[in-house]
Amino acid sequence: MRVLSGIQPSGKLHIGNYFGAMQQFVEMQNQDAECFFFIADYHAMTSVQDPAQLRANVEEVALGYLAVGIDPEKSVFFPQSQVPAVTELTWALSCVCPMGLLQRCVSYKDKVEQGLAPNHGLFYYPVLQAADIIIYDSDIVPVGQDQKQHIEVTRDLAIKFNNIYGDVLTVPKASIRENTAVIPGLDGRKMSKSYDNTLELFTPQGPTKKKIMRIPTDSTPMEDPKDPDACTVFTLLKLFADEAEQQHWRKRYTEGGMGYGEVKKRLFELSNETLDPFRARYEELKKDMDYVRDVLNEGGKKARAAADVVMERVRSAVGLR
Ligand code: AQP
Q: How far does residue 222's CA lie from ligand 1's centre (Å)?
């Protein structure tokens, strides 16, 4: 079974990226899957148009993958742009892609509404994403819920291509975990690098505590019962707490007499249990960026070799050989 996923270097990694996607990456890598994980730097060009910033973001995300446990001995780990053939496959897929399929994608409309320039790259992004997946013959794509529609587009394109050219491409499936499919941000919307509503993975304890203590809550008086399922603090606490502790806090909410400050403090403590080892590893790796760059270059070589196999099949199928 081949697993593939990517993350855009469009800002600092947050717990939405981790619980929605990266936690699955690490688990799958430690099972028997053949894993490919990449930094989606071509994709980030749709929103990051400062070259120094893009380079810095790629290094930041590279550190992030390694700090949470991606092991380059077990996974092929690389920047997307080290496999330029992916843009060639994007073209081949474009030629079988109905315009309507892309017009139905909600992410384009969302990003334009957020103020991103409505450039062709942003519109065409799901085809590049399909090529990213298909070029490695990927079977499984671990992602958060926001990527579900794009994986459907990928499947549609692989099937359309195969209908025209024969059984050339592997049709992948998404792996989305129900409990962590959409991690809410501190403002209750989806946690997202571009909404300034994140709990970052590697930010030190001090600023993280400030952010947690400022999470907006409702004005229910302290003595009254509260609804845990309508509270962002409880939803985030569930990510870090075991079942017994989740039940404890559920009871505290519903029986009343609990202030939000108390549960926020516990969320902070629990988050440190998960995030402190990530923070330490991130700081350690940051001291040796040459190692990180070597890892990316080695991963790039392996990824190019795997991509070549599929591209040769594609070129031959469409009549370019
Ligand atoms: N809030 C989230 N809940 C669950 N999963 C999430 N992911 C992102 N946010 C959440 C998953 O993380 C992986 C990498 O995402 P990405 O960085 O490539 O793009 P994104 O989904 O667009 O993430 P952001 O933070 O919202 O980035 P920007 O602001 O740049 O658009 C994906 O598997 C995603 O599902």
A: 35
